[in-house]
Amino acid sequence: MSTYSRFLRRVVIPVGSRLAGYGDFLPYLQSLEASQWWSPAQIRELQNQKLRRLIAHVYQHVPFYRQVMDERGLTPADIQTVEDLPKLPIVDKSVITRYYNTTLRDQTIPQHRLIHATSSGSTAERLHYWTTKAQKAKKWAGLFRWWEMVGYEFGDSYVTFQLAPNQGFKGWPLVGRLEWLLLRHHWLSAQEMTDEVLNRYVENLQAWKPKLFRSYASTVYYLARRMNEAGLQVPIPSILTTGETLTDHMRETIEQAFAPGRVFNEYGGDGMQIAAECEYHQGLHINAETYIVEIIKDGRPAQEGELGEVVLTNLEATATPFIRYNIHDVAAITHEPCPCGRGLPRLSHLEGRLTDMFVTSDGHWLTVHQFTAFFAKLHSVKAFQVIQKEVDFILIKLVVDETFSGEDEKRIIETFRRYMGPHARFELEFVDAIPVSPVGKRRFFISEVIQGTSSQV
Ligand SMILES: [Zn+2]
User: Fold this and answer.
1) Is pLDDT above 90 for 37?
2) How far is the CA of 286 from the centre of ligand 1 (A)?
3) Residue 383 maps to a domain
4) Centre of ligand 1 from the C-alpha of residue 282, in Å
5) Domain assignment of residue 241, yes or no
6) How many domains does the chain have?
7) Which residue from 54, 159, 220, 332 could staple onto 349, CB 3.0 to 4.6 Å apart?
């Protein structure tokens, strides 16, 4: 570790966290740095200990869980290990938002210590919940562990490329600037991405020489595509993509512009840092000291490697407990050891939002990954978005250039028909642009019919 990094960790970050009014994340980060190398059995035992502590606490102090457990004839003694979790009901965004301010709330935390949080995701319905400084600090620790996993250390120059900047010191712009200066943080706005702006960004990156670059997958993909077209390259040791599906084609494009083999996918949502890739790119390691991840298919635990819905238990949250929270994302899990030696289990596949998938009439799930290679080879199509309006009715929106032909149209429909079955109907709509969601995400697939496991309370 460099001297500057040590100085930041020993002095600047502890003092800065206190001044900014959020908890010091370094103690938790240090514990995560160590425990990632534990054996899977040790990590599982840590999860079980934290789970027992969590359940004992919510049974005593969160009326929602007292009631839910009493109704099921459960006491904390019935939840001893991760295997016991299915005794408790699955909850979702609507349950949390409905009860977070009444019964689903830790009564030992005084109101003035609760911090209101909200997250929008890709759907219109917003999630509302309470958090605390201590809980936020643990979230930051989880994030920085992922950064360190791909070679970052505090003091390395890094760039965030997103709609709005992350500012620790809200309302104190000068201190905020000092924080960025000390942490060598630069921000590029993803608000406006004309060619002129993107050219300036490339110059910025060449001047700043960041060690790490973090962005929504589609945003950095768009930048990389423009750079590749212009024959530009900026070597950056680590690119972290977040927020949405990263397809193989997107990964290749980003690697070409920045660095081969150095694109790392990161997965978070609804205020949680859930999983990220290590240097081996064989799935995403789960932040297992903080979250229990269950994969549920049709109401039962999925097999290893089988796609299902991601159901999360946050072992460190009580202000608003997240216990068996269905985040409505789709992934598969593996407990096979990773060549990196970390004992953390992995998501072997991560397919994004459940509503970003299609369901066929015989119940199979389709993901955009099955179509990206096809579209990548279809040069006349500049952008696409496919909407499942009914199980057997698909609307395909396309941005095309003048080379688009009737032959291309036939190939598109044939390709989709192979997956969707002979009864499916298709409609093509030619548009000037594909709109991004209000939070800046690009969605390739939208299903208006798929429904996952609903809340059980
Ligand atoms: Zn690994």
Assistant:
1) yes
2) 10
3) yes
4) 7
5) no
6) 1
7) 332
